[in-house]
Structures are given as structure tokens and as C-alpha cells.
Amino acid sequence: MTEAVVALPMYDWPEAAAETDAEWRRLRAALAASGVAAPARLARSNADLPPVPGRPALPPHGFDFQALWRHPALLFAQTCWGPMEEGLAAAVQLVGQPSYDAFQGGMGPLYASALVMRGKGHAGPREDGQANLPLDLMRGKRFAYNSLDSMSGILAPSRDLGGIGLFAERVETGGHRASIVAVAEGRADVAAIDCRSWDLALRFEPAAAELAVVGWTARRPGLPYITGRATPAGTVARMRRALASA
């Protein structure tokens, strides 16, 4: 029998691996208290995913998030609302969402993205949760984003701008951290970084010290916890109760 797959990849920076492990221990204990047994070890690469009969083998290096989220043995993971909107929601079940209260720009299950540019200073998020967009600063600039299906990195700022053709160029980087470095090194001028990733960057990414927060996107639901479509309804209900208690 294939062991259940669990992962928390969205904020699992190498420097924060111990924190991610501690977060999983807390969540796993809450699940156990509700009668849901879960593996102790998080999947962190393709090599940690059990092979799926009839599907091509994954390369041993890297982490294919779509393969993780759509794995038939998925018990617990975190994803983004961008992929959920683009079809992933039909392949998984929503379990809950974490709190972003600990991070500037967050409020309960809602989060916002910090708009960062080179320089000093800081603009705070609006208390009403609406977007704070410095249009004059961003107009005609090069916009760095992590991936086209990222809610925090491109979908949220694009929707807040309402279709305004503001940027001269868009530069795909592959990750929030890479976007921060691209702006700091002058390969792009502005990026949208979700508030928890920005908190990680301030702690662990030296390039963040070269940047200033010049605005914020509107608050939206944060990264949701999911389980596989095959997870029994009773197990999903117990998982939801466990997250509420945690």
C-alpha cells in the first residue's frame, strides 16, 4: 500500500526547513487528535513522491508541484489559488486555510502582496484591505513575477490594476525569491511578493535589504490546504475539524 503523501512546499525555504518541520509537527498532532494518521516526513522533492502506475517517471531532482497536488496518495498539502482557478480545484478537495495574522499584509485567512522596488522607505497596507498601488512609480517599469499561475505574484496585481497596461515588460523568474533578486540586481524594476514570502526574504535573502515596499495588492484568501480527490469524506471532515482547532 502506498504511503500517504504530505507536503508544505509553498514557504519551505532551505533556511526555514526546521520551521516548516515544526509547523508540520503541530498540524500532524492536531490531525492525530482528530483521528487522522499522517506521515511524519514531508515530501520535499520528486524523489519523495511514490511512482504512479501509468504515469511517466518524474526526474529525480526538483519538485513538480502539479504532480504533488494531483498525486493519488495526497493526504495534505498547500497550494495557490491561481492553480486552483486553472483546474486544480476539480482534482482536489479544500481542507482549510492558515492564518496570516503574524505577517504585515495578512489578516486571518487573507493575505496581500508587497510591491517592492529598489530603494529605501516603506508603504504600509491599507486598513480596509484594498489595494495601495503607486501607479506613478510603476508606470513603464519592468515587472518581475514568479509564474503565470501565481495569485500573489501576477494575478492579484493584474486584477487590482484592472487591465491597465502599466508595465513596459514582464520578466518571469520562477519564484518569489528569484523575483526579489532580479529587482535588486536591476534586471527588473518591481515585483509583487506575498506577505509571508516577503517576511522570509527580510530574514534570509540579502537582496531584500536593497528593496523598499512601495505599495500593496488587495487582500485575498491565502494559500489553501488541500487533500486528494480520493480522500474519504469522513477523513476530510476530521481534517477540517483538526485545522479549526489548530
Q: Determine the fraction of residues in helical runs and give it as a percent range.
A: 25-40%
Read across the widest sheet, the strand sequence of neighbours is: 7-6-8-5-9
Overall SS class:
alpha/beta
Question: Total helix count?
Answer: 8
- Please give the radius of gyration in angstroms: 19 Å
N-to-C span: 29 Å
Mean pLDDT: 96
Q: Give me the count of strands.
A: 11
Relative strand content? 15-25%
The residue ranges in which pLDDT falls below 50 over 5 or more consecutive positions are none
Major sheet details: 5 strands, mixed
Silhouette: globular
What's a quick, concise take on this entry?
Helix content is 30%, strand content 18%. It is built from 8 helices and 11 strands. The model has no long low-confidence stretch (mean pLDDT 96).
Summarize the structure in words.
The chain has 246 residues and is α/β, with parallel strands linked by helices. The protein is built from 8 helices and 11 strands. The strands form 3 sheets. Strands 7-6-8-5-9 form a 5-stranded mixed sheet. Helix 1 crosses helix 8 (233-245). It is globular and about 55 Å long.
